[in-house]
Every structure is written in structure tokens, then in C-alpha cells.
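Internal ticket - ligand job 462, flavin-adenine dinucleotide:
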Amino acid sequence: MEKNLRICIIGGGPAGLSAGMYLEQKGYENYTILERQDRVGGKCWSPTYNGRRYEMGAIMGVPSYYAVHDVEEFCGITHDGPKLNRNYKNSQGQVIEPFEPKKNLLKIPRLLKMKKQVKLFGELLESKYKGYDVNGHRGVAEGRYEGFSQQSAKREPVSGENPNLKDLALPFKEFCRINNVDLVQDIWIGPYTSFGYGYFDEIPAAYVLKYLDFQTTMNFVKVNLWTWKNGTQYIWEQLNEHLKHPARLNSTIEKVERRGGKVYVTVNGQVEEYDKIIVTAPLYIPNKRADGQVGMVDYFDTRDDERALFSKIDYERYDVQAVLTKPEDHPEISYYVFDNMVPQRLGHLMVYYRRWKDQIDQVITTYALRKHRDSEEIPYEKCRQMVQDDLKTMHNPAREVINEWSVYYFPHVFSEDYASGWYDKVEAMQGKYDTFYAGEIMSFGDMDETAEYSRELVERFF
Ligand SMILES: Cc1cc2nc3c(=O)[nH]c(=O)nc-3n(C[C@H](O)[C@H](O)[C@H](O)COP(=O)(O)OP(=O)(O)OC[C@H]3O[C@@H](n4cnc5c(N)ncnc54)[C@H](O)[C@@H]3O)c2cc1C
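stdout (C-alpha cells):
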């Protein structure tokens, strides 16, 4: 493509900013990033309390976050945050050690079986499901893999046929069942459901395993994780500062029209002309959101194929509260509550995060899901109260809530749409209306998968 193409990027989160970086590195310098908020980072939101930044959104990375590492190198920063650590409690608030055989004599057979299944699962993923961990979902529903290997920072192009990959459309629970490895869910659930990505009986295995590939899961098990002292938002603030064209904040896009090979974007009342547009903002939001956020189908001259496909997207209702406690009620560490990570305990506290170990006058953040595909959504206020009650049960009651949000989280499609080739249909539309689709839905809802998808989009089409 012509290097002086005028490219509009919607969204100044990880996907949009990294698209700017990779375009710039490839010689495309005529790009504009439009961000609707007064800050960059999107779901990487790290406000300050008492002189330190806490996390309302993304918290951590793993050593295989190659795209995030590209950004770190581009900006000359590193993952210099506090070491993560956690313990476990049951739903009655008692500290437990679910993986320690000596503390669970009756569970020893199950723990041994689980260990065996984890090993077997690792082997299955490498052999039967070869190609499962490629970023994005191209070809999976047809039994192919196509993309860039995530096994090393080189990210070599890879492709091949593997009919077994079609199994990845199944809900993860079913996927484990057909492979006789049900117990691996005990390990995968910690960094999956409690991080807001839904329940194993509803979410296609593809999402679970592209995010939690074997290597990444083992990094979680060994707590080999990255954090950033100034928060994950800092990564994207730094990137924004280092880009030739930082994001234009407070950009309200009223209309996008695509005609005659040009893209006309009406932003803050002015019409701007571009040659191509990359959308990293939500494509579709099924119901009206309290924060006024809308999907692209609402402000674009959307075509029938875009509307038909994007209306299949659902998302998680994932709520975060930032609370203060009395000093004597401050938790000594972060806690996972496995009992609450099942659909029957929808709306309950699944995890709470103590970020700063050396300071008790700091924020604790809480996490809960309040929607499962097969049940009614729990209203926001009710879930908020349930979490507060749970904190009391955990012996760490909140004194005050100082921040909260219910975020548009982890857009995804369900098994039937995944299996019928939703991703290949959307991939076939890339560029069709001078429009490219990126961001979470195209890969997975974490910082690295989204930034990596932007890297590959630039590699493939520009
Ligand atoms: C509570 C929580 C915990 C998380 N934990 C982790 C974690 O530990 N590790 C991890 O890797 N990831 C984590 N994530 C996920 C990660 O933050 C997201 O996957 C990532 O930020 C997605 O990047 P994105 O650019 O695709 O989308 P977003 O971050 O959502 O950015 C999209 C941007 O587009 C802007 N936008 C939207 N609509 C418009 C419009 N119409 N016009 C202009 N701009 C628009 C938004 O304001 C936003 O800035 C977490 C997220 C949350 C909320």
C-alpha cells in the first residue's frame, strides 16, 4: 500500500495505539488516532490514590507478552511493578490451600489425577491441537491454523491443516470432557473466570486456550508475572508520548461514511477525509450502556454483512470496585475465592487484589461477574452489595468505595457462531469497505493479544 495513505484509527487503547506504533515502524506516518475519552489506555486504567497508582483495569502480563514488550522497547520502559502473590479462601472466608496435598488428605487422589491430566493436556495441545495458540481465530472453524507463532518473540509465520482444531469451538468444559482432562479446569479457572472472561460451560475453548496457552498458564501457576509500578495505563501513556502522532483525546465521532474509496469521519462537528479506517472500538454493544458507549454499528454507515455478523457479539458484565478498609481489616495479601467462580455463585466476589504490600492505606480492588448466558443479568447495584457483603464474610470489610466501574468486557461470540465460521467471515471483510477491524473481539480481551493482533493486521494488509 501507498506509504502516505491517510489512516484513521478509532480508539486509543492498547489495540489502537499499538496499531499506530506498528504502522509508524513500517513507514506509514500519516495516521490519526481518535480517542473519545480524556485519557489513553482504554481498559488499562490506573488512577492514583495516596501517591500510588492502583488498577481499575488490566493488572498483569506474562513473559510471553511479546507485543507489550515491543511497546516497552519502543518507549524504553520495563515491567517494574510490585510482585504479585495470592492466597485462597473459601466462600465462608476461611483461608485454604487447595493445591497442597498435606492440607487436603482426602483430596490427594484427585490432586494426583489432576497433575497427570495437566501433563497430558500439555502434550495434547502440542500434538492433537497443533496450531491452537496462534493469535486470532483465522481458519479454526475450518480446521486450519494461519498466523504467527507465539512460541518465541520472533513470531514466525505458520499455517497448516488440523481438523482437530474445530473442537476449539466447543465450550471449554465440553472440550475438556471429550479429551478426558476435566480436572485441568481446576487450574485454568483461576486466571480465567475470576479475570472476568466468563464460565467454562459457555465460552468456546478457543478463547480460553489462545489466552491461556499452556506456557502462559504455567506462568500463572508459578506466579511468573509482570506488573508496572505506574500501572498498565502508564505503558500506553508512554507509547502515546513516543508516537509521532499522539491520540487526539475527547474526540466524539458522530458519523463515519465510506464512499468512492474514501472514508469521511465527522468528529467534534468537523468532517475529515481518510483513505482507510481501523476500528479498535467496540463493534457492537447489545444493550444500552450506562456509560454512553456505543458500537460501530450505531455511528457507521454499516452494511448488511457488518450488521449481521456484529450483532452476534456478546460481552461480559464485569464489575470492579476500589475500596478502602480500616487498617485492622486490610487483607495481608490478594485472595482468590474458587467457590465463587461458578455460575451458581454469579455476582459474588471472585478475587480481590492487594497491590501494595508495604502500605496499608492503599486501595483494594474487587472483581465480580454478574451475567451468564443462561441466566438473568444481576443488576449492578445488587452485585455491588453482594460483593460488599462478601468482603465482610472474608473478614476484610470495606470502609468506603472510592472508585467503581462496570466495564464493557471481553467481547466474544458463542460456540454456534464460532463453529459456523464467524471469524473467517469477518476476516474476509478486512479492507472490503476500506475498513479494518481490530481490538479485543478479533483475538482476545487482554493487552497482549489485542496489541499482537494490531501488529499482524499491519503486517498482513499494510
Ligand atoms: C478489570 C480488568 C482487568 C484486566 N486485567 C488484565 C490483565 O491483568 N492483563 C491483561 O493483559 N489484560 C487485562 N485486561 C484486559 C485489557 O485491559 C484489554 O483487553 C485491553 O485494554 C483491550 O485493548 P483494546 O484497545 O482492544 O480495547 P480498550 O482497552 O477497551 O480500548 C478501546 C479504546 O477505544 C475508545 N473508544 C471506544 N469507543 C470509541 C469511539 N466511538 N470513538 C473513539 N474512541 C472510542 C475507548 O475509550 C478506549 O480508550 C483487564 C481489563 C479489565 C477491565
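Auto-summary: Residues 10-16, 34-37, 42-44, 57-61, 195, 251, 253, 280-281, 293, 320, 407, 409, 439-440, 445-448, 450 surround flavin-adenine dinucleotide (CB under 6 Å). The two ends are 6 Å apart (CA to CA).
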